[in-house]
Amino acid sequence: MADAPFLLLSIRAEDEAADDEYAAMMRFGGLDESGLRRVRLTHQELGTVDLARWSGIMLGGGPYNVSDDAATKSSTQTRVEGELAALLTEVVARDFPFLGCCYGVGTVGAVIGAEIDRVHSEPVGGVTVHLTDDGRRDPLFGGLPDTFDAYGGHKEAAARLPAGVVRLASSRDCPVQAFRVGANVYATQFHPELDIDGLYTRIDVYKNHGYFAPETADALKDDARRYDVTHPMTVLRTFVRRYTRGV
Length: 247
What we know:
Mean pLDDT: 96
Number of helices: 7
Number of domains: 1
Distance between the termini: 6 Å
Low-confidence stretches: none
Number of strands: 11
Helix content: 25-40%
Strand content: 15-25%
Strand order of the largest sheet: 2-1-3-4-11-10-9-6-7
CATH superfamily: Class I glutamine amidotransferase (GATase) domain
CATH class: Alpha Beta
């Protein structure tokens, strides 16, 4: 019996960043290209996703924000958000295994009625994450230390979660670093696929996307070295191990 593959949805239009993200998801998830299929939503329409074909779905991050002014959104971003909203509505309703990294907070949050705004943004670089009591008991996060370093950087975040949604982690400036809907739908604000080399790639690729002043790129790289980012990748590996199923 073969294993059903996982599906990675990418919103990165830039090849270098998209390919690095895909490689990192495979590496830290313990998968190869047959085990993790990719759809680059900036390059093609999502189409129909038959959940029965997949072990689970992952969503990567990128420059889109659901809280962007609608008048500033490109036609591609508008299409992608509509496709993701329809898919995630089904994912949540069926409690299908899903892990959304960074952009997942906004997209899943929009579907479940969370308050998504720019109040709790964080700069690009290292962040210290603290598990909640629920996070310590969670099957995906329970193997992590109570406090660990991660890499991230985001303009929007969840300011409030609706009743019944489980907050799993927080940081000093961002009260919702991860949450769970039902038993199997997860979103993280930090990037579980990101190591120091991946962060350098993101800084180089996105230095003109408004996350930081371009002239500070080298200083951001230097500061990132202060963080010991070795634990977040456990989330990816555990997600894959927990949800891999045969077909």
